[in-house]
Amino acid sequence: MGKKLLSQFSTLLIISLFIGFVFYSFGLNFFIGIGVGVVAQFALYHAFLVLVNLYAALENKKIENERIKEFSFQSMEVTCPCFKQKKEIIPIRLNANNQYKCSECEKTISVFITPETAILTEPIVNTDLTVVNKLIQEKLANGSA
Length: 145
Prior knowledge:
Elements: H1 2-25, H2 30-72, E1 73-79, E2 87-93, E3 98-101, E4 108-111, H3 130-144
Antiparallel strand pairs: 1-2, 3-4
Helix pairs in contact: 1-2
């Protein structure tokens, strides 16, 4: 970290000295040139960071818009209601009417999406087999008597 800081400071100093010499060669104050060089470098660095952040924000927005667009396209396997019962995979859009043309009967078919709900349950996991063994022994005892 120290080497990097020293490198950046020396770059700032060298460029500022160069700008100071340019000022001096035009008959202006050398130290004012160094000050202008330092301020100009910080201003350019800040402008660069603002532009990079703006570019990154725009790219992220593009990616987000593409993701939303892709999420709106989904597919579903459907069966044609005609007598041939042809199964096809069709694109489904959640924000539009869904229709397709059957490849067998050549009729236009509408697809209606109806939401269904269900209660999620957890499977019963009982690794204690003593209860099961006890029930089996009871059944055997009752069955043999």
